[in-house]
Write a structure and sequence with these properties.
5-stranded mixed sheet; 90 residues; alpha+beta; single chain
Length: 90
């Protein structure tokens, strides 16, 4: 699972960037991710923007309460955080 967006130059500050990354991590936690399964990647672009990727790296940590992770949940391509739309799987 990944939440990502590109924030153009002039539309972010260090403070807003930190809040955005924290919010994406919180969304993944609400979906069941453990803190050590969440990885944030922030890349500054040559045009002054930033690419943000917050990834739930499933499988890096042991399942909670001894229960195996279910593979029955539907898979999606992720959520476009900027527009709030789900992209198709695949």
């Amino acid at each position: 699972m990944e939440i990502s967006t590109l924030v153009p130059q002039g539309e972010w500050t260090d403070e807003s960037l930190a809040v955005l990354v924290e919010g994406y991590g919180r969304k993944l936690t609400e979906m069941g991710a453990l803190p050590d399964e969440i990885k944030a990647h922030v890349e500054h672009t040559s045009r002054g923007g930033v690419k943000i990727r917050v990834v739930w790296e499933k499988g890096d940590a042991a399942p909670r309460s001894g229960a195996p992770r279910s593979s029955a949940a539907p898979q999606s391509g992720g959520v476009d955080a900027q527009h709030g739309e789900e992209s198709p799987a695949g």
